[in-house]
Write a structure and sequence with these properties.
alpha/beta, 7-stranded mixed beta sheet, 5-stranded parallel beta sheet, about 30% helix, binds adenosine-5'-monophosphate-propyl ester
Amino acid sequence: MQNDIESHLIEKRVFKPSKGFSKTARIKSLAQYRRMYRESIRQPAKFWGREASELVWRAPWKKVLEWKAPFAKWFVGGKLNISENCLDRHLNGPRRNKAAILWEGEPGDKRTLTYQQLHREVCRFANVLKRNKIKTGDRVIIYLPNIPEAAIAMLACARIGAVHSVIFGGFSADSIRDRIIDSGAIALVTADGAYRRGAIVPLKKNVDEALRGGTSIKRVIVFRRTGSEIHMEEVRDIWWHQELEYVDANCPPVPLDSEHPLYLLYTSGSTGKPKGILHTTGGYLVGVYSTMKYVFDIRDEDIFWCTADVGWVTGHSYIVYGPLANGATVVMYEGAPNWPEPDRFWKIIEDYRINILYTAPTAIRAFIRWGDQWVAKHDLSSLRLLGTVGEPINPEAWMWYHKNIGGGRCPIVDTWWQTETGSILITPLPGAIPTKPGSATLPFFGVEPAIVDEKGNEVGPNVGGKLIIQRPWPAMLRSIYGDKTRYRQQYWSEFKGNYLTGDGARRDEDGYFWIVGRIDDVLNVAGHRLGTSEIESALVSHARVAEAAVVGRPDELKGQGVVAFVTVKTGVDASRGLKEELRDHVAAHIGAIAKPDEVRFAEALPKTRSGKIMRRLLKEIASGAKVTGDTTTLEDFSVLARLSESEE
Ligand code: PRX
């Protein structure tokens, strides 16, 4: 265990915020950050109450926090509507005619939605939902491309109190079906297709497959994006544009309890079943509003671009709810970063004069590989702040980002958080906290992280351990949908009363956090969490597979690559053709992101005497390393020798 989270990286470079940046920033110095942090820890009710009071409440809260571990209620008794906070609240002043969303499709088509226009579209679509008998508390699946309609559908659900569950467009029919079953959703919003690298992803076809044989879904609302030929099931399937003909744009926001469920977002855990992470209304809004304001130091005149897809939590919190609650202008781009050429991002930054760019280390590594010449073609001087999220950023990638994209003048906020945390928890504040390449630096206001050993004792500086959070925060998950026991067990039982992040980390002599990565059986592939057992289940569902074990290996581009060790059933020919078939099988069952980079056939998998697969050994074999360490519990030693010889 200790081996897994030891950290050998010692980075000495320090970058102080420039005087110019600090002068105009909200938080201008380390001293000011420390003062506010101290207050947020000593008097959380005062701190969060002040943040919350900048937003619109229909009924005041009676208590900021009620904490009966592991169940938190924030802004107890308060009533509000998050879509009102993201839209209506900006309509009484000059923001009314300000761009809320600047969108660009992969083929190059463009759309601008001002706050007033976005408000109108959200109201109309909320009326479409109502017309189709979707009510407060009902679950609605959203399976759309990265287009404004995704944000519109989310906000429309929130407006009437329906609970959205967005599924990333890269997921397959099986994944959609699992999520429908778990959530009991009654409606699904999708599109005919999505553009990706010049090709069309058949979203509606995937939905048809997912719904085959019947599910709880009664209505499918289809947005026309690509104009592809699709099947429309009579009664069940309806067109978005046709429905709009029956509704007007008048739809008052429903005041909802602060703890009313806002959304479910499914994420990988260490067991095969994806978890429906449940976020609620008031605390989540305050969390994303406040982090957007301080971490990105967002200004009315800024153009902010978060390159994530709305299907991930980053898109929920920092394309939709955080920026819009702040009245910001966001850029949304539908497609791939290397379409039609590897300079698409830089072209977008130049075209829109983007000021703040928030992207992922995996993308940065790809840009480095594609070459600096693509960056050099464009004027990136509008940028003033950069951010990263999703996985640890290697110091050299950080330096490249700083120099080549930020022109040496932009602070970088390396933001650590999770689907479960809802908002950023460990991060630099750009005008206040000096950065070190590769470190997410210090905790955000109200966040009290620690690094502990197996027994829960805090470890000293530069010693690796498990990252925990010692008190509740407003945007935290409230439960795993339909499974309070799993919620308690997964996050709160190992160190009672503390939130277990599942990440390993160390803290240096300045108190800076260095996240090492996941410590459980979860991979981080291109910034996306994948449960190894989910991929294993997909492999074993193939008729010719007997057993499978999936591990990660370091991958220059994706952070981690997926390696599958597979034993086939007796009599099956373990051919190269079967390897390809298995890779495609995983892609079909989960989605292309989970496709193994390598499939290795083995006669047997290394197991302990109690039958547990020894993943540590497989990891070493997968990364080409010599197997070291204790193998005394191994049941059959010859397995190891044969595995190491197995061809790639
Ligand atoms: O391992 C951490 C890594 O991503 C995990 C969370 O994944 P997910 O729920 O998919 O959310 C990703 C976007 C918020 C974490 O447990 N991670 C995320 N951000 C960082 C990170 N690792 C290191 N540094 C980060 N800045």
